[in-house]
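Q: A reviewer asked whether we had any structural model of the full assembly, not just the individual parts. We don't, so I'm hoping you can provide one. Inputs are below.
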Amino acid sequence: MAILFQSSADRWADWQPPLTALLPGEEFRLHPGTGDPASIEFAVVWKPPIGLLASLPNLKGVLSLGAGVDHILADPTLPPNVPVVRLLDPSLAAQMAEYVTLAVLAHHRRRGDYAAQQRDGVWRVLDAPGATRRRIGIMGFGMLGEACAARLMPFGFPLAGWVRHAQTAEGVRMFAGTEQLAAFLACSDILVCLLPLTPATHGILNARALALLPNGAAVINVARGAHVVVDDLLAALESGHLSGATLDVFADEPLAPGHPLWHHPKVTVTPHIAAITRPAHAAPIIADTIQRLRAGRPVAGVVNRHKGY
Amino acid sequence: MAILFQSSADRWADWQPPLTALLPGEEFRLHPGTGDPASIEFAVVWKPPIGLLASLPNLKGVLSLGAGVDHILADPTLPPNVPVVRLLDPSLAAQMAEYVTLAVLAHHRRRGDYAAQQRDGVWRVLDAPGATRRRIGIMGFGMLGEACAARLMPFGFPLAGWVRHAQTAEGVRMFAGTEQLAAFLACSDILVCLLPLTPATHGILNARALALLPNGAAVINVARGAHVVVDDLLAALESGHLSGATLDVFADEPLAPGHPLWHHPKVTVTPHIAAITRPAHAAPIIADTIQRLRAGRPVAGVVNRHKGY
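A: Here is a predicted structure for the entire assembly that you could use as a starting point for your response.
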């Protein structure tokens, strides 16, 4: 039995040393060199081609190379009873917390406005409220959301979280479900989207939702591009209702040349770098997951197909 | 007896309500309307004119409206035995920690490079080490330095501090005195200057010091412009030895139009806004200091004239 690795070819060079060191008895196959499909026991994947996983009759587990699994669940032929496991990597959470804290502080301290003043050679102090009057709303509150909240809390920002099913978090005002979404948005001066992409969250940041944010709010999307209706976001920036946006993810990546987001003065664009899976940190988690799945032991991060994450 | 307030005239409008509310029995005079110099008991000042304080024969205390006192000690006629008190304001420390964390994360996550890529419409992932391999060095470790270290520590950055006289701080590698300055600089991938400006620290970030920083280091100055020898900094940026600088303070403020710092691609300029004294937060501290000085009770922040802070 073998383990199939499927990502871009240049990634295998980084993954091979730690994975083979951690799983010394295993045979790895690099997609598309799958060999006998019946010999594949586990698949470690990123954006697998439609039908690939269905072609493996003895598959016992699918492991995502990232925190999201939407790229796996999007395959309508995905075998229904094979566990799909998202990557719960503290290194991803740490990077995400860096990126989100940077983006939150940049909006809070009006870094974009000061950069514009610097370009114009203008020396002028701009008004800004203190942290205790800048409310941060975090959509999605798993490992990544918790890490962001932990870094933001010492600054004194009032924190809120929005989740699908009611949960609690110390020092964070939690909202749950569609019925509390409007109340959550209304107290989010800076909105951070960390949601999984599911049919229920696709396009969730649309004109109606953005209109519910306080006037002057900023939006940070580090989840999936499809969470945001870009035309609605641009309209809310144009109208002045939103003061800015920081976007690391886009429905189509790379972001197309000439796309209006590239050059919008109120938008910061980065090339999906908020949290990059690092083989040195993630390979031990993936190796441990494979060993647990094989031994029938409990595994963290197994996806609930109904919820989609 | 009366209290003299000396700052720019427009600041008094913000200070008058909280100060008069907190010190209801006191008479305030707004410089230059000093009245009888012999009637002034305390002076609350920002950049007082040379000779002003020496003209007040019954002065019992000088209170700075900011964290620094270099603007007071620079007056050679300053009466030698009057206590000078710097403002120890947790609100200043909180703002400074926001600004420094933002600047540190911006250098750490290469925000300037990504902004340049955005301007050019370039989608490319840039290399960056994890936080555990990015060493932060903080020069000056009083209330402000401690607040910055407390916010940076949860990210996992290795932290070092440099002070005049040996002190300890949990989780921070401390260096002291000129004999340990080189060792401190050598382990500062991102250097944060929070020093008081004194004859011993004037021009401390000169060519020799900057050369001791690791290759690719970044410099953040939020103390006083005169700590940095700007021509040396520009040379170190030009040579590629330094990767960037964030400067909030300048020897002459406002920064002169056309100054090369305004438009240097590796330099972020802000108009001395890292930590702005807010009357609502600082007035209670100033009122308490006046009451303590008058009662002969202990006062925090009394300046050691020999050390200069």
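A: Points you may want to mention in the reply: Chain B touches chain A through 45 residues (CB under 8 Å). Chain B has nine helices and twelve strands.
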